[in-house]
Amino acid sequence: MTLSGDDRPGVTSALFTALAGTPATVLDVEQVVVRGHLTLAVLLATDGDDRVRAAALDVAEEPRHEGALQARHRRGPRPCGGRLHVTLLGAPLTPAAVAAVARQVAAQGANIDRIRRISRWPVTTVEVDVSGGDVPSLRRAVATEAGHLGVDVAVSPPAWPAAAAASSSWTSTPRSSRTRSSSLLAAHAGREAEVAAVTERAMRGELDFAQSLHERVAALAGLDVAVLDDVRAAVRLTPGARTLVRTLKRLGFTVALVSGGFLEVVQPLADLLHVDHAHANRLEVRDGRLTGRVLGDVVDRAGKAAALRRFAEAEGLPLSRTVAIGDGANDLDMLDAAGLGIAFNAKPVVREQADASVTVPFLDAVLYLLGIPREEVEEADAADGLDPADSLP
After folding, report:
1. Boundaries of each Phosphoserine phosphatase ACT domain copy (predicted)?
2. 158-181, pLDDT tens digit by residue?
3. Is 385 exposed, middle or buried (0-12, 13-18, 19+ CB in 10 A)?
4. What digits encode the pLDDT tens for the residues 190-220?
5. Residue ranges of E strands in the chain
6. pLDDT at position 51
7. Is 120 helix (H, G, I), strand (E, B) or coil?
8. Left if phi > 0, otherwise alpha if psi is -120 to 50, otherwise beta: which for 288?
9. Which domains can be identified in the chain, with CATH numbers?
């Protein structure tokens, strides 16, 4: 469906609010405003329900009793203030989600200038250009509604000047995305229950991360170092990790991997992905066996943030030009230090404090928050002779 006419506040909100009561899902949106004239096109997936048509007609035929010049004079000058992007990700993306964001934009006295689709697969993503808005206040306004509506919403300045990226969310295991490499090693040592008990104490707040790590590693004393090969074989890349790194590298980003796990497991993955920097805890080995001790400082919450600063300094970049991706409380300092902190399938406390959140299980969805369309990614992959399936592990 296409709506065209004089631009005025509330058109986008009115349309998607009307559609929210129908069974439609949003596949594509394009909105532009040229010299006060608005064109809004929406592609919907629907079973032909007449409620969709009725909702659209109700908005399109809304009576207006004043011309464009009089309308603009009545509501005053265009909103002043900054410009920002609002990015919505959904699988599916519903009219209710778009309506909620449009309502919050209007409530702040801001204006939607343009909407464009960033991706249709594996999630539907649209980017909304807003004038007159404020990033912190709009981010707070949409955060709660986004959770209720089952979509991800990121509010950011018009362009994140990012040139470096660090992540702790590259990997998972077949058993659980939260399974730690120390747990896999403990299984080989026959002490999995002991390590699980230490992890549980840490989750209850009885141990901090460093204490927990030292106790877990102590349980591995005497283990043959050869079992590290089995652990490495059990680790799988998060879907989309290859595409994310490959695309960022094409764009000239420096990419780093920082982990509270073990470098003996992390480094081979970093090499596989051609990551520029890798930082994790190191296990002490003597005579081919683990001693149960960690070498050097523990890579904890503060250590991850320090690693980000070190990476940025090594590349001659200010922290404002960095992106950090994480999923746990140990990532919070790193997310806060970065120019853009993204919570990926994270705990609620992390999502609440991060600049943006992604809850779909594809790491390359982070690209859409940086304004990189899916089509451009696929075109670049095709030029290199790669198949879209290569993004999966």
Report:
1. 86-155
2. 765 567 777 777 765 433 334 467
3. exposed
4. 888 888 888 778 766 688 889 989 998 999 9
5. 2-6, 25-34, 37-45, 82-90, 111-119, 124-133, 152-156, 164-167, 171-172, 236-237, 254-262, 277-286, 289-295, 322-326, 340-344, 356-358
6. 75
7. coil
8. left
9. 2-156 (3.30.70.260), 165-184+226-391 (3.40.50.1000)
Measured distance CA(60)–CA(43) in Å, rounded: 16
Cα R_g (the chain), whole angstroms:
24
- Cβ atoms 269, 277 nearer than 8 A: no
Note whether 317 and 164 are within 8 A (CB): yes
Residue 352 structure tokens:
């609440």
> Looking at this protein, which amino acid is placed at residue 58?
D
Q: What is the DSSP letter of 384?
A: T
Query: Are the beta carbons of 15 and 46 closer than 8 angstroms?
Result: no
DSSP string, 7-62: --TTHHHHHHHHHTTSS-EEEEEEEEEETTEEEEEEEEE-S--HHHHHHHHHHHT-
Q: Which of 138, 42, 46 is nearest to 87 (CA)?
A: 138
Tokens encoding 69: 């010049």
Structure pTM? Answer: 0.82
